[in-house]
Write a structure and sequence with these properties.
elongated, 2 domains, seven-stranded mixed beta sheet, FAD/NAD(P)-binding domain, alpha/beta
Length: 347
């Protein structure tokens, strides 16, 4: 933990997926500014990590959308409220203070918040690891599960493992001119069928044709070392051959998996690994803490994005009453309320 001062806020949202972003929006309408923490390196949650280009058909007002498009629209929607995002951070502990506020800690920062909104979906998404004997010791030096700083890869021999969009995008970025340009890039996947958008696949084809990216079909079966350095990987090919790929850096993108993680240790009432809430307010068993989206449980619960939007709305109203008990609580509408339109920056 760094010796940085506490970040004081009225609301802290854990999770920057669609429901977490809409929670920020609804809080903004109530005049409540939010800080947002997410374990990933960008907003979007499952929508960005699992299906950025896959179609969604059940978002109100959007007959067809993608995970990426929905995330971009939600970020535009919350922009007037200027939320502050803290990416690549996982909340490790919470504790109630004598004044009723909550001290929320990550390995990098600490927050003092009057209200806490858990929008962590089915848990914090963490990268799936490549399980090979002796490989883990190179994590953070030669083995990465997320793209490190560009200067760490410039001029290096990089093997990218994975067949989804993030693997394709990073291979393209490393093979393109710029501060991150690697000496050479090999993209390794079990078969030559990659899950990425048409523009990315077209660019990849160009780089393969020019020799800037080498594609290899197969799976990593072992590692090669010299002294304390990782020097290569052994690859089992579909035709039962074994290849040796030399490298300086191994960048692995095998997808992500959810882990409930520290949430289960915070003393909140739970049912079947989900947080129990009051469906009238989405308050948890602890005053000032709310849970919205797939992380919660209540009678009739449906794990749909649109249901999470409803939950975030009621949670924001409940939090506004908790933070300001003297408020009138009169329902206002964005179509007619000068106050709400002012908060939205409508001219």
């Amino acid at each position: 933990m760094t010796n940085t001062p506490f970040i004081q806020t009225d609301a802290l949202v854990i999770g920057a997926g669609p429901v977490g972003l809409f929670q920020v929006f609804q809080l903004g309408l109530q005049g409540i500014h939010a800080q947002v923490v997410d374990v990933l390196d960008q907003a979007g949650g499952q929508c960005i990590e699992l299906y950025p280009e896959k179609p969604l058909y059940d978002i109100p007002g959007l007959p067809r959308s993608t995970g990426r498009d929905l995330t971009e629209r939600l970020l535009q929607q919350v922009a007037p409220f200027k939320p502050e995002f803290h990416f690549n951070q996982q909340v490790s502990a919470i504790s109630r203070q004598a004044d009723g506020q909550w001290l929320v800690s990550t390995p990098q920062e600490q927050f003092l918040t009057r209200t806490l909104f858990i929008a962590a979906g089915v848990g914090a998404f963490v990268p799936k690891e490549l399980k090979l004997e002796g490989l883990a010791v190179f994590t953070g030096t030669q083995l990465f599960y997320r793209m490190p700083r560009p200067e760490r890869l410039k001029g290096r021999h990089v093997v990218v493992v994975g067949g989804e969009e993030i693997a394709v995008d990073n291979a393209i970025a490393l093979a393109s001119e710029g501060p991150q340009q690697a000496a050479n890039v090999t993209l390794l996947h079990r078969r030559d069928a990659l899950q990425a958008g048409p523009q990315a696949l077209a660019r990849l084809a160009e780089l393969r044709a020019s020799g800037r990216i080498r594609f290899v079909a197969g799976q990593v079966s072992g590692i090669e070392t010299h002294g304390d350095c990782l020097t290569g990987v052994s690859v089992a090919t579909p035709d039962d051959q074994t290849l040796s790929l030399t490298l300086d850096v191994l960048l692995v993108h095998l997808g992500i998996s959810p882990k409930l993680g520290p949430v289960a240790e915070w003393g909140l009432a739970m049912e079947r690994k989900q947080l129990s809430v009051d469906p009238a307010s989405f308050a948890t068993s602890e005053t000032g803490i709310y849970a919205v989206g797939d992380v919660n449980s209540y009678p009739g619960k449906k794990k749909l994005i649109v249901c999470g939007f409803h939950e975030a709305t009621l949670a924001a109203f409940a939090a506004a009453s908790y933070l300001n008990p003297q408020s009138s609580g009169v329902l206002q509408y964005t179509t007619s309320s000068a106050l709400l339109q002012q908060r939205l920056g409508v001219q």
